[in-house]
Amino acid sequence: xxxxxxxxxxxxxxxAIAQAFLTRHEGEGVIDDQVLFCRAVRHxxxxxxxxxxxxxxxxxxxxxxxxxxxxxxxxxxxxSETVAVVTDPVNGLTWAVPVxxxxxxxxxxxxxxxxxxxxx
Length: 120
Known about the structure:
By secondary structure, this protein is mostly helical. It folds into two domains: 2-67; 73-107, no CATH class. It has four helices and three strands. It is globular, with a radius of gyration of 17 Å. The termini are far apart.
């Protein structure tokens, strides 16, 4: 159990490092999201982190950064494996969105930019 707690604490620290890197460099303005993502992954790799773990942590940190000002939230208690329930506590609205629609219109959308490490 102690090893699990230590790993969770380490992941929190590494996530904080990724968040700090993204926040620090996002304000530079000349960097687009893909370049910023790749730089953050490389930064974590410089700390001897495997690429798959760095990409996962940077993806999480990127999501937190981009959604920090959004008041809408995923209601985990009301959601299921096939329906995501989104709430907006400010105006009291709730949406039930089938996962299939999320895949069709967000994940598989031709305009969706998938952020991952791109080697030159």
